[in-house]
Structure to design on (391 residues):
């Protein structure tokens, strides 16, 4: 059981400067709506407009702050939590900073003597499963970087070490993902498509030969990437996913593409319509039974939408089947995560309405998302730009 010295602060800790209209009405979705008595693991939200990071968890149905907001030295861009839950990285306009995580309380401590471990303003980051490499890249550089880190502290393994780089077709880095077996890297490279790179954490230069999966359409772009979890009885993920613009027909042309991990071949039926234009984040659920993709806008406006799919396999063939409804989120959603208890899915919305929505899985409709938490993450407008959760 976690010891929460400040549990009584609850969500009021986010409102020390006087936020108004904190509680919001729950959105209407294809699942149910209501409240919950469940509790979640810890997660962290970047507020871009206020240059702050807030730590949060759900305590018996109540959204609760982990101490006071963390003030950042510059506007934040991206966040990632290491697989071992020992440290967290925040990319800002002033570089990438590392925090150690107290797993008992959720509190963060700024590491590396308060200095950035690299001046890179990364737009996407992830730590590999061995907790020994930070993979990061930023728009404008046309490379992806691997930085060797200390698996216990998260700082550079060797002071002043050089980054290992791999060239990309385009300068845009929307998202990166490393397979849970640590052997394969994906980079959502915008109009350059999705870059594929074999990865070996044991090598001093961990990158293999760069490959590219081109967009479905010549005018499309790769925005998001993700891997299936490793399910019981397997040693590697079954599928990986790409979120692209201009990938399907109709008024909402964003699409979810699904590929067999072992063959790197697109499965039958892919790409799948997602009810939106710009798939900003993909979340394969930890059970392997479902995958969700959030679009930051639709053809009717900036209100986001989450599409869900069930994932089944038979005779080594995989099938994605759309759930019977999509699920509404706020305006311009940027991130989607599952918490460490596997009871909640959280989405953050850059232009609010609200900043944060928490969903539980419907008890009668498998895979359906029921909104149960709807809140601000500070004194609005905060521009909630990214979210990271303990694993």
């Amino acid at each position: 059981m976690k010891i929460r010295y400040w549990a009584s602060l609850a969500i009021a800790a986010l409102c020390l400067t006087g936020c108004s209209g904190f509680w919001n009405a729950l959105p209407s979705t294809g699942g149910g709506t209501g409240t919950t008595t469940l509790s979640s693991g810890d997660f962290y939200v970047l507020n871009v407009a206020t240059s702050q990071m807030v730590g949060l968890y759900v305590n018996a149905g109540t959204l609760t702050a982990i101490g006071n907001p963390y003030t950042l030295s510059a506007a934040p861009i991206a966040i990632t939590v290491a697989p071992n839950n020992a440290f967290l990285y925040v990319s800002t306009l002033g570089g990438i900073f590392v925090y150690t995580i107290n797993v008992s309380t959720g509190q963060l401590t700024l590491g590396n003597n308060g200095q950035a471990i690299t001046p890179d303003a990364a737009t996407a980051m992830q730590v590999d499963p061995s907790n020994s490499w930070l993979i990061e890249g930023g728009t404008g550089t046309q490379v992806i970087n691997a930085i060797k880190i200390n698996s216990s502290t998260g700082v550079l393994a060797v002071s002043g070490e050089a980054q290992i780089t791999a060239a990309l077709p385009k300068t845009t880095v929307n998202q990166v993902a490393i397979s849970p077996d640590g052997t394969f890297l994906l980079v959502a490279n915008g109009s350059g498509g999705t870059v594929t790179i074999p990865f070996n954490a044991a090598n001093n230069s961990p990158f293999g030969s760069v490959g590219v999966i081109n967009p479905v359409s010549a005018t499309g772009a790769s925005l998001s990437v993700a891997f299936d979890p490793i399910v019981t009885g397997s040693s590697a993920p079954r599928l990986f996913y790409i979120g692209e613009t201009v990938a399907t027909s109709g008024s909402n042309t964003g699409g979810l593409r699904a590929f067999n991990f072992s063959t790197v071949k697109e499965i039958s039926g892919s790409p799948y319509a997602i009810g939106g234009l710009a798939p900003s984040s993909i979340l394969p659920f930890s059970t392997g039974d479902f995958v969700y993709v959030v679009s930051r806008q639709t053809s009717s406006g900036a209100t986001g939408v989450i599409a869900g799919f069930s994932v089944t396999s038979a005779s080594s063939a995989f099938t994605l089947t759309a759930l019977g409804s999509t699920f509404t989120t706020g305006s311009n959603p940027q991130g989607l995560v599952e918490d460490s208890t596997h009871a909640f899915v959280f989405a953050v919305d850059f232009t609010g309405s609200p900043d944060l929505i928490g969903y539980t899985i419907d008890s009668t409709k498998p895979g359906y998302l029921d909104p149960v938490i709807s809140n601000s993450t500070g004194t609005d407008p905060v521009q909630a730009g990214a979210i990271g959760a303990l694993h």
